[in-house]
Amino acid sequence: EIILSSKCLGSSCISSLVVDMIDYVGLNKVYIDGKDIKSTMGIDIDYWFWKSDVLDFDKKATVDFLLEKEKEIIESYPPGEDGGTDLPDSLTSRYSNYNFFKIDDPLTNKIQDHIKDNIKQCITTFNGFNKNIPTDDLWLLCWYNVLRKGEKINIHAHRFINELEKSFMSGHFTVQAENTNTNYLTICKSSNWAVKNIPGQLIIFPTYVPHYTDITNSEETRISIAFDLYDNKQLANENFIEKGNCIKLQLD
């Protein structure tokens, strides 16, 4: 078990974290009232998130490019299952039909490299605590979300508690957002913590953690890139692999 209270990870020292916590670049362990969180079922659950540094990228050009690509994807595919986000006819509901990492453009390549670099750093940090996470069989599902004024992503989880052993890493990279947070919850949904959406920043978190966004109140679209990462091909969705939208991720 990773116990991070009063220890340092790289250049970041982490004290006990509470709901209104200060978070650091790197690995953050989530504590409530100075204690590890335990579900109401008595199950020990590990709650953490990885916070990247802020990527310097051309936000306006990237936003324009992704909004044009959104039209293309929506015209190419009918809406499908929206993953519990309550966005039934949206780019999000088409997440199973494409992979962001297959969009080949200098603008997207820069973000893809940032995501890969931080996945590698995150795994390396965990392996420093004897987690022994392999990196030779990683599989990635990656899509992006576009929210307009009045829209939000409802509470959902990418895997459920009964799939805890299969869960691995998920992430959100913020392309554009104005005064919004992504809110993460404990499994029993009795406690939550908010992480501010900062353009250029990636947050990685356990796939089993429920989460949702604030309502977008700005005229400016909120755009985020999301992913699920599996450390074994057998854990990924076979149909998605066959369709080519769940791809093998090479970190080196």
Description:
There is one protein chain. By secondary structure, this protein is α+β, with helices and mostly antiparallel strands. Helix content is 18%, strand content 26%. The protein has helices at residues 59-76, 106-127, 238-243, and strands at 7-9, 12-14, 26-29, 31-32, 35-36, 48-51, 139-147, 169-176, 181-185, 192-196, 202-206, 211-213, 222-230, 246-248. The strands form 4 sheets. The chain has a 7-stranded antiparallel β-sheet with strand order 3-6-11-8-13-7-14. A hairpin with a 2-residue loop joins strand 1 and strand 2. The longest helix has 22 residues, at 106-127. The two termini are 27 Å apart. Residues 1-20 have low confidence and may be disordered.
What order do the helices and strands come in, and which of them pair?
Blueprint: E1 7-9, E2 12-14, E3 26-29, E4 31-32, E5 35-36, E6 48-51, H1 59-76, H2 106-127, E7 139-147, E8 169-176, E9 181-185, E10 192-196, E11 202-206, E12 211-213, E13 222-230, H3 238-243, E14 246-248
Antiparallel strand pairs: 1-2, 3-6, 4-5, 6-11, 7-13, 7-14, 8-11, 8-13, 9-10, 9-12
Features of the shown structure:
single chain; 252 residues; alpha+beta; seven-stranded antiparallel β-sheet; three-stranded antiparallel β-sheet; 3 helices; disordered N terminus
Q: Number of DSSP helices?
A: 3
For the biggest β-sheet, the strand order reads 3-6-11-8-13-7-14
Helix-residue proportion: 10-25%
Question: What is the chain-wise order of helices and strands?
Answer: EEEEEEHHEEEEEEEHE
Instruction: Specify Rg, calculated over alpha carbons.
Output: 17 Å
Largest sheet: 7 strands, antiparallel
Strand pairing plus helix content: what structural class?
alpha+beta
Give unreliable regions as ranges. Answer: 1-20
Roughly what fraction of the amino acids lie in strands? 25-35%
Whole-number average pLDDT? 86
Report the principal-axis shape. globular
In total, how many beta strands? Answer: 14
Q: For the terminal residues, how far apart are their CA atoms?
A: 27 Å
